Amino acid sequence: MNAHFNGRQGSRLTRQRGFSLLEILITLFLLTLWLLASAGVQSASLQFNKAAQFRTQAVYFATDIAERMQANKTGATAGNYAYDGAVVNPPTDCTTVACAPDEVAAFDLSEWSARVTATLPSATVSVTPDAIGNPVTYTIVVSWVDRRGDRAYSTAGSTESFSYTATKTVFDSSTL
Question: Which residue range is the domain that position 110 belongs to?
Answer without folding.
Answer: 52-175
